[in-house]
UniProtKB/TrEMBL annotation:
SUPFAM superfamilies: DNA breaking-rejoining enzymes
Keyword annotations: DNA recombination, DNA-binding
Protein family per UniProt: Belongs to the 'phage' integrase family.
Stated name of the protein: Site-specific integrase
Organism: Chitinophaga pollutisoli
Annotated Pfam families: Phage_int_SAM_5, Phage_integrase
Entry-linked InterPro entries: DNA_brk_join_enz (IPR011010), Integrase-like_cat_sf (IPR013762), Integrase_catalytic (IPR002104), Integrase_recombinase_N (IPR010998), SAM-like_dom (IPR025269), Tyrosine_recombinase_XerCD (IPR050090)
All copies of domain Tyr recombinase, residue ranges: 132-310
Keyword Nucleotidyltransferase on entry: no
């Protein structure tokens, strides 16, 4: 009664509701939180860049659909998910796997809005992203040899060497670019090793240098760019690197379009798995926290089958084709018995 008499109750009842949040406000909230984590080293700057791209895609979609650069969260319906996917595939010509990443990010924004009570319910809660695993292209060993023996002009020679280094270490482009000279150390085996912190996991990983990457490192000990920037290899921009790699691939007549991903796949498959390195070891060297991620690279090649079956043949059979194991010979005699033959 006192509040009513003083007029405070009327003021409370007539107070306007808080303004409704918008979709891009939710994105900006996510972006600011992520930027703080990047600043303290908890997340990768590349993740922040991908969210910036997501924002640009969303703005373009909203302008195309609503002729606005932003909409309120209440205007986001479940059907908008299919419309966004259609827009990315048709208007922007994006592959479906890439489009799904933008939809996944948008769904995360709506989940955040739901938790912050900016929404009554996440309209995309039932949506599930689907990915089609693309073929993991890699070079064969003859292609690696051809690439290593070809002579190039200096502009392409640097790029070829960096690519070969990645083929024998499995490092991603950013990891190769961030390599510093003080990351090299001598291991207990007397060989040179590299110690890096993986960008995605933040886990320190050590890798012994094989002769080819070790020789490539020695090439650039006195390189002016490497000395000035305290880097191990002369790696500059990502765009120039991939552009020059295509020239290198064309000159060497390699059917696969060369890229940093191809180098990483080549290390996992052709260099390691095809030569008997266990999947668990490959997973560790690639910096994976889950071995299921490494299994994507575990393409069983004909060469791998041939090597494994040859080893099996040597264990079970003599040179004349006779079984070495007595128990197996007993089973073979049973199979040869006409009474039990199938």
């Amino acid at each position: 009664m006192k509040r009513s008499y003083s007029g405070e109750l009327v003021k409370e009842q007539s107070a306007p509701p808080p303004p409704e949040r918008t979709l891009l406000q939710a994105l900006n909230y996510k972006y600011s939180k992520l930027a703080q984590l990047v600043k303290v080293g908890e997340r990768s700057p590349n993740t922040l860049k991908r969210w910036k791209v997501t924002k640009n895609k969303l703005r373009a979609f909203l302008h195309f659909t609503f002729h606005k650069w932003d909409i309120s969260l209440s205007q986001v319906h479940s059907s908008l998910c299919d419309d966004f996917l259609q827009f990315l595939l048709v208007q922007h010509g994006i592959k479906k796997n890439t489009a799904m990443k933008y939809l996944k990010n948008t769904k995360e924004l709506l989940t955040i809005a739901d938790r912050k009570e900016w929404l009554n319910k996440n309209p995309w809660a039932g949506f599930k992203t689907t990915y089609k695993q693309p073929p993991r292209l890699c070079l064969t060993m003859p292609e690696i040899i051809r690439l290593s023996r070809k002579s190039f002009i200096p502009r392409l020679d640097h790029v070829r060497n960096v690519f070969l280094f990645a083929c024998f270490t499995g490092y991603a482009f950013q990891e190769v670019q961030d390599l510093r000279r003080d990351m090299i150390f001598i291991g207990n085996d007397g060989k040179r090793w590299i110690k890096i912190d993986r960008l995605k996991t933040g886990n320190p990983e050590c890798l012994p240098l094989l002769p080819i990457p070790a020789a490539i490192v020695d090439m650039y000990v006195d390189d002016p760019y490497c000395i000035a920037n305290n880097c191990l290899l002369p790696v500059r921009s990502y765009q120039h690197y991939n552009g020059y790699l295509k020239e290198v691939g064309d000159i060497c007549e390699i059917g696969v379009t060369l890229s940093t991903h191809v180098a990483r796949h080549t290390f996992a498959t052709t260099v390691c798995l095809d030569n008997g390195i266990p999947l668990e070891t490959v997973s560790k060297m690639l910096g994976h926290t889950n071995i299921r991620t490494t299994q994507i690279y575990a393409r069983v090649s004909n060469r791998n089958i041939s090597v494994n079956m040859s080893d099996l043949e040597k264990k079970l059979f003599t040179v004349k084709g006779e079984l070495k194991v007595v128990e197996m010979q007993h089973l073979l005699s049973q199979w040869e018995d006409p009474a039990i033959a199938v």
